[in-house]
TrEMBL record:
One Pfam family linked to the record: AFF4_CHD
Full protein name: AF4/FMR2 C-terminal homology domain-containing protein
Source superkingdom: Eukaryota
High-level lineage: Eukaryota, Metazoa, Ecdysozoa, Nematoda, Chromadorea
Segments passing through the bilayer: none
Region feature (Disordered): 43-72
Biased composition (Low complexity): 54-72
AF4/FMR2 C-terminal homology domain mapped to chain residues: 9-156
GO cellular component term, pick one: nucleus
Species for this entry: Trichostrongylus colubriformis
Length: 175
């Protein structure tokens, strides 16, 4: 279907804008979480320092490791409070939204650059709606998408009523 690449491009642009807004929505929490992690890290370092000063000299495990240093295992395990783990997990989710927003946006741009029909479609949309950016307000994204869908639907309706192309009849030609 000749509209498929334009639909795919619109979908990618919409998805990347929504991912960016998800990141932006969570970004204030990410800043707070980072501050919380910094505070927790200093507390953990202080507790570790206190426990090392009070511990006997016979301990053979390395700091931050649950595997003894004389063990032949190559895997090192780091233990952390579950609260730290949960905060770090939230940080990764937030950054994941930003990373995917940029990646999907760049992929859509590359795909559009390889198709003159897609570029003409996007240029027309930008003339009517203004240029769409990754961080565009949701209202602008909605207007952009509604305009694009209206255009694609009108094109589809025109093609539906247009007579199908004539079929070539094969005749018993030279064998």
């Amino acid at each position: 279907m000749h509209m498929l690449s334009r639909i795919r491009n619109l979908s990618s642009r919409c998805q990347s804008c929504l991912l960016y807004h998800m990141y932006n929505f969570r970004s204030q929490n990410a800043i707070k979480s980072y501050s919380m992690l910094v505070n927790m890290e200093s507390q953990i370092q202080e507790e570790r320092h206190q426990s090392q000063n009070g511990a006997s000299a016979t301990t053979s495990s390395s700091p931050g490791s649950s595997v003894h240093s004389n063990s032949n295992q190559s895997v090192t395990y780091v233990t952390m409070p579950s609260k730290v783990y949960d905060v770090q997990k939230q940080q990764l989710k937030t950054l994941h939204h930003l990373m995917w927003a940029h990646r999907v946006w760049q992929d859509a741009a590359k795909r559009a650059d390889s198709s003159t029909l897609d570029m003409a479609f996007i240029s027309g949309l930008e003339k009517v709606c203004g240029q769409l950016f990754l961080d565009a307000p949701l209202e602008k994204l909605c207007a952009y998408m509604l305009t694009a869908i209206t255009w694609l639907r009108a094109e589809y309706e025109r093609e539906k009523v247009r007579a199908p192309p004539p079929t070539v009849k094969r005749t018993g030609g030279v064998s």
